[in-house]
Amino acid sequence: MAVRDQPPVEPTPVRADGVGRENQVLRELVTIYHHLTGLALQSADLETVARLLAERIADLVAIVSPTLDVLAAAAAGAGPGEAMGRARAFISGRRLGQVVSVVARTRRPLRLPAAEGSPSVVVAPVLVGDDILACLLTVERARAEPGEDVSLLVTEHAATICGVIMGRERVVAAAAARVRDDLMEGLLLGRAAEPEEVDRWAQHLGYDPGHAHRVISVTLEDATDQELEAVDQAARRHRILDGLARLASGRAPDAIVAVRDRELVIVAREHTASTDHRWLAPRELGNALLGHARRLYPGAVLTVGIGGPCRRPSEIARSYAQARRTIGTSRRLGRHGEAVAFEDLGIHRLLLQVPDLDELRAFAEEVIGPLMAHERQHRSGYLRTLAVYLRENGSLQRAARQLHVHPNTVTYRLNRVRAICGLDLDRYQDRLLAQVALEIVEALGDR
Questions:
Q1: Which helix (H) or strand (E) holds 213?
Q2: What is the pLDDT of residues 70-92, one digit of tens each?
Q3: Do 355 and 330 form a contact (C-beta atoms < 8 A)?
């Protein structure tokens, strides 16, 4: 029989159905890809991407940080609040922490098959450059059939779009941070040419001149480990100060917080009994930062200075200068691990107003210089005896008890002080000169 006499071979229904399904999947894939790419071009946010996926391929969509915090979520037929709640419950119930870690390590999407009534889940990494900032989770409506695995491909592409969005947000945030840092620097150092300019800077930073504020300076000393290189010191410092900045923002949400090269600066509102007790006052905030550092960074040495109150934006620079001078004095007095306010300095507060500190040192040298030189050479204890005697308001008995010696010994030492530096401690003026000189030495050091 001739070949032409044979009936033509018809394609099997299975093959026809298979080709149809593949064409349908391809068309759907192209359509979703087109929509997702359009979202990136339209400057959409993460929630918009999640909502599109929830409408097209998934019952629940979540974008989560590496620590499993839900950044955005969407669910079919649910509002934003309900979607966030469902996403948190799903992540908690499925214990996805290990899966997210695997995806972050391999940098490839992963499908968790449906099991025990739980739907299939696709997890894809969201990359920005070399960093994985988040993971995209899509919970499928139904278990995918062979040849219909749209969700894996779509989730991977959507994760790429999320990376574009987060990368753009990172660039914008970095630019905003630079502007914020410049404004903060101008306020702290008083660089504005006109008062109106200071007011504008403060307004942009969210400063409320209707309330008193204080500037808090938190400085971190470098580690004493000689093997720790300079780059490691900087990374350590940056990590600790960033952690303290996050705590400060959480405990005082109305504060202006900035991390500078070697310090954390906070412009904190001066809360009183009539204000919100949930937010910490400056001194309480300083102590909270110290406590946090002791718990998480036990080797870190912090010094906290709190400037005087300021209300007008132009007064911020003065409060900051006071905080810095307080830190300088605290270091010299060995008062590490404390939150010291400017007013705690006593007479040091007045002495530190003198612009030329060498002038203060010259005054102390003129009054008790010979006594300090004698003390360095002989270790006689005369300088400390003088300080205790003046602190005890000229009482020989109380000074003797503090020094654990006989009152006659105190008298002998004071006579030696008179002979060495010519001070007549029976005269009020000489006692005042000696006391001020001792305060200068205590504040600035014997140098």
A1: strand 213-220
A2: 999 999 888 888 999 988 888 88
A3: no
Task: Walk me through the domains of the chain, giving residue ranges and CATH numbers.
Answer: 22-162 (3.30.450.40), 211-345 (3.30.70.270), 357-444 (1.10.10.2840)
Burial of residue 185, with CB atoms counted within 10 A of its CB: 0-12 exposed, 13-18 middle, 19 or more buried: middle
Contacts of 50 (CB under 8 A, 6+ apart): 61, 62, 63, 72, 73, 74, 83
pLDDT one-digit tens code per residue, 199-252? 999 998 999 999 999 999 999 876 555 545 666 777 888 889 988 998 998 888
Q: Of 220, 303, 320, 314, which is closest to residue 267 (Cα–Cα)?
A: 320
Determine the Cα–Cα distance for residues 177 and 171; give it in Å rounded to an integer: 10
Residues of the chain short of pLDDT 50, as ranges, are 1-16, 143-148, 227, 274
DSSP string across 371-388: HHHHHHHH--SHHHHHHH
Radius of gyration of the chain (CA): 35
Closest C-alpha among 254, 180, 251, 266 to residue 210: 254
Q: Are 384 and 429 in contact (CB under 8 A)?
A: no
| Helix 428-444 vs helix 316-332: crossing angle, to nearest 10 | 90
Over pLDDT 90: what percentage of the chain? 29
pTM: 0.58
